[in-house]
Amino acid sequence: MAVDPDAQIDHEGPVTPYRQLAAILKARITRGDWAEGRPIASETRLVQEYGLARSTVRRAISVLAEEQVVWTVQGRGTYVGQPPVEG
User: Fold this and answer.
1) How far apart are alpha carbons 16 and 31 in whole angstroms?
2) What residues does 41 pair with on adjacent strands?
3) What percentage of the chain reaches a pLDDT higher than 90?
4) DSSP-assigned letter for residue 72
5) Cβ burial, residue 46 (10 Å; 0-12/13-18/19+)
6) What is the DSSP code (8-state) at residue 11?
7) What distances in angstroms separate CA 48 from CA 52, 53, 71, 77, 82, one per listed residue?
8) Which of 79, 81, 50, 78 is nearest to 68 (CA)?
9) What's the rounded mean pLDDT across residues 42-62?
10) Which neighbouring-strand residues pair with 79?
11) Any long-range contacts for 54-57 (C-beta under 8 Å, 24+ apart)?
12) Backbone phi and psi for residue 70, each to the nearest 5 degrees, phi listed first
């Protein structure tokens, strides 16, 4: 089932908010809102946009990182795709 990238979080639904947010962010990446290698919106921005706790946003980003959709650099942000190979 495709997720609408413009969907809002359903706090009463059966799916946890962090899973909903992860699916929405993944759909936004697929739509091209953020290009590969470029940063996604900041945690602060996502907290404001979706009305969620920072811990919920972090958990959603963690899910995407585990799926290797994004990677995070502490203090710098979260980026789309795989981290660059250091050599």
Assistant:
1) 23
2) none
3) 90
4) E
5) buried
6) T
7) 7, 9, 21, 16, 26
8) 81
9) 97
10) 39, 71
11) 56/17, 56/18, 56/21, 57/18, 57/21
12) -135, 165
Q: What band does 1 get if pLDDT is binned at 50, 70 and 90?
A: low
Cα separation, 61 vs 77, whole angstroms? 11
Outline where DSSP puts E strands in 13-80: 70-73, 77-80
Per-residue pLDDT tens digits for 2-17? 789 999 999 999 999 9
**Residue whose token pair is 């050599």:** 87
Question: Mean of the pLDDT values across residues 19-44?
Answer: 96
Q: Is the pLDDT of residue 37 over 70?
A: yes
CA distance 53 to 60: 11
Q: What is the DSSP letter of 77?
A: E
Closest CA to 9 of 25, 31, 32: 25
